[in-house]
Structures are given as C-alpha cells and as structure tokens.
Amino acid sequence: MQPEILSYPSAEAEKRLARIATRGPGFKKKDLTAVGRILEAVRRRGDQALVDFTRKFDCPDFSREQIRVDRCAWDKAVKSLEPSFVRALNRAARQIAAFHRRQLQSSWMDNPRPGVVLGQLVRPVEAAGIYVPGGKAGKTPLVSSVLMGAIPAKIAGVSRIVMVTPPAADGSIDPCLLAAARRAGVDEVYRAGSAWAIGALAYGTETIAGVDVVVGPGNIFVTLAKKLVSGTVGIDMIAGPSEILVIADKTARPQYVAADLLSQAEHDQMASAILVTDSQELAGAVARQLRLQLESLPRRQVAEKALSQYGAIFVVSGLGRALELANRIAPEHLELMIAAPYDHLPRLKHAGAIFIGPHSPEPMGDYVAGPNHVLPTASTARFSSALSVDVFLKKTSLIDYSEAAFRKEASHVAVLAAVEGLEAHRRAITIRLEKKRSKA
Fold first, then answer.
1. Quick one: 118 exposed, middle or buried, by C-beta within 10 A (0-12, 13-18, 19+)?
2. Using CA atoms, how far apart are residues 273 and 264, in angstroms rounded to an integer?
3. Which strands sit side by side in the sheet containing 353-356, from one edge to the other?
4. I need a labelling partner for 413 at 20 to 30 A (CA). Which of 53, 120, 209, 272 fits?
C-alpha cells in the first residue's frame, strides 16, 4: 500500500496530517516504569547492574572487566579497516568539524555605561557522553552517530568525551565505530547500551565516571532514560521517529523525489515521508516511482509500512500553499526541489535542516555535508535546533559596578525589590547607600 494522493486543504488531508502529527515517540506506562527501575538499579548497584543487563540483553558471557574498551582494541581496529572507509571517514570528519567550528562562541566583556563592566564567559562542560546505538545487534555500525556527537564536543573544548555503545553477542565492538571514535576525539569507550548506559553516564559507576551532558539517538528505552535523567545531566533533545518533507514542482525528477522519500521511510515503521507538490502529474509519477523502487529495497517491508501509515502526497494549488504546509508541519528534513528555491527560502520558518536543489538529497546531510544530522522531530523545529557546539557550552554572566555607577542605579533596584516584597534584597542595596560609619 502506497501513500494516497490527496488534495490540500481537504478533510482527507487533515485526517492524514493528524495521524502523522500524533504518531510521536509513543510509549506505554510500563515502559516508563521499566526504565525508571533500570536507572535506579544502575544508581544503586553501579557496574554490577551494567553487567547484569548486558548479560540479559546483549552478551551472555559479559564480565565487569569488559566494560571498558582498552586502547589495544582501538589500535587493532584502525589497522583492520579498508582504505576506502578510512578516506570516507576522514572526509566526513573534516567537513563536520569545519562546519561546527563556525558555531563556536567566544567570551566577551563590554563597558556599556560609565563604571559598569558586563560580560559573558563561555566555557565548555567538563565531560560529555555520546550514546551510539547498536544498529541491528552490531551488524550496521552507526559511524555517523559517533562523528555527529563527538566532534562538536571536541570543538567546544570538552576535556573528557566518553562513548557508550552496546556490545555484540561475543562482546566485540565494531572496528568502524572504534576508528570513528578515535578520529572524532573520543577519550573513553565503554560497552554498555540502552537505558543502563544512559544511567551510567548520568550517575556514574565504579568503572564509568559520570558526565555533564548526554547526547545521541536511540530506541524508546534510550529516549525515556534521557528524559528521566534530564536535569541531572544536560541532554541534546528528545527525538522521535525520522521524517522528511519534499516540496517539488514540475521541474523535479520523480525518481529523485521517490528515492529521497524512501531514504527516510526505510528507517523504521514510524517514519514519515511526505511530498507536497503543485503538479498533479508529478504526484502520479512519484507514486509510480515509489512502487518501482520499493521492489528492490532490502528494507521494503519497513518502508512500505511507514509510507502506508505516515506517508502522504499532497497536491496544492501553488507553492505558497506548499510553504504554508511545510511551516505547519515543521519537519526534521525539508527538501526543496523547485525552480528558484532561494527565492522562497525567506518564507520557510520551521525545519530542522533544509536541502536545496536536486543534488542535495538528505543522506548528504547524514554523512558528509557538515551540518549535524541530530535534528528536532515531531514539529519541535518550531522551537529547537540541531545538535551543535552550543549543547556542550555554558555561559556565565559577569557584572562589575564601580561605587559611582552603583549609586546612580541603586535607587531603581531598591524600588523594584520593594514592589516584589523582597526586603533583604532592598537592604543589600540601601546598606551601601548609608554614610560610612566610623570604626568602633
């Protein structure tokens, strides 16, 4: 079953949009309870809890000595890799680093009024944890997750970068992940997955010292664990299923559009893939291409389920209406396959990342373009942004008044404090306005 071709606006289109909008990272109360118990077990029992959970779910013969990956394994991993992978890894790392360096902020000080110095100190957190999912029991190592999490932390100046990832059944970590960790500047790698890994990063264990910020994607247990430890540590975001929205006109190639929709639909059955077009002819051609390309797709069943449940092809009266719909949905990934895309860019308000033109498919952003691929989902692009260097930085204000500057503004503070009923605040001001008393 393929996504229907629907006119927008219409009752049918609204029904489909409501289904997409409410899919979210759904979880049941029992999931939340289970994650809470896992986190508490890690808090109380430390390493032993990690060993117990890892034996149960990942590696039956796991031991405490295996939690930390030793440096010899890193060295061995790097030597075992194909040169083509190393070249691709290095290119991706260079370009991701170059983009994120542009985000780095500096401390500053200013003298806005006579006798007043104000400023902001920009400092990195001391330790960051990067969660890297197992990827089909270690069979599909998510190298890009290592780069996208660790490189911004390194550029921010974080002095200790920790990576956690679940081991395979034999206790191994894919050498591609270890090579990526080394290239990205990771300091420590640990064999731990799911909610217990998040708990270890947040609370610390005998082997894994706690961190200040935890980032990285994961399944519903990872997502819930990050939600529950938020406040104890900083997190990047609560991410939901992947999504893509393509705005295309008659100039777009239907095979490109279909391929890009499938690039997200194959992620999981909850993924959303939407085409919005002002061309009925293109809508039909894309639908035919989806059927054709699905036939040879290894993850066909996953993609078909995603398209049938949360996919859509909306036909609109013009590009103005298409832009309005995109702003309403606020997609994670937004592609513009239209003539003169930059002319329309100012009207787009909400998107995690925007891909412009026929040769900028979403997977370029996943791997080598440079911007971070950890993006807001489920319409949260209305108020949040991609993972960036900022996630690993904290800002401290500086305030310095001379006596003359203080006396010039003190009365205003005293008035405002009195209005708020904070007498001690007011006295902290007025005591400095009293005449100097002679020493006793």
1. middle
2. 7
3. 5-7, 311-315, 272-277, 243-248, 333-337, 353-356
4. 120
CB 217 within 8 Å of CB 134: no
Tokens of 30: 């029992």
Q: Which two tokens stand for residue 191?
A: 């064999």
Per residue in 290-305, pLDDT (tens digit) is: 999 999 999 999 999 9
Residue range 138-158: average pLDDT? 93
Whether the Cβ atoms of residue 112 and residue 399 lie closer than 8 Å to each other: no
**Average pLDDT value for the chain:** 95
Q: What is the pTM of this model?
A: 0.94
Question: For 104-127, how does the pLDDT look when each residue is reduced to its tens digit (9 = 90+)?
Answer: 999 999 999 999 999 999 999 999
Instruction: Identify the structural domains of the chain with CATH numbers, from first to last.
Output: 5-25+240-370 (3.40.50.1980), 29-105+124-235 (3.40.50.1980), 403-440 (no CATH)
Helix (H, G, I), strand (E, B) or coil at 397: strand
**Contact indicator for 271, 239 with CB cutoff of 8 Å:** no
Q: Just list the catalytic residues.
A: 332-333
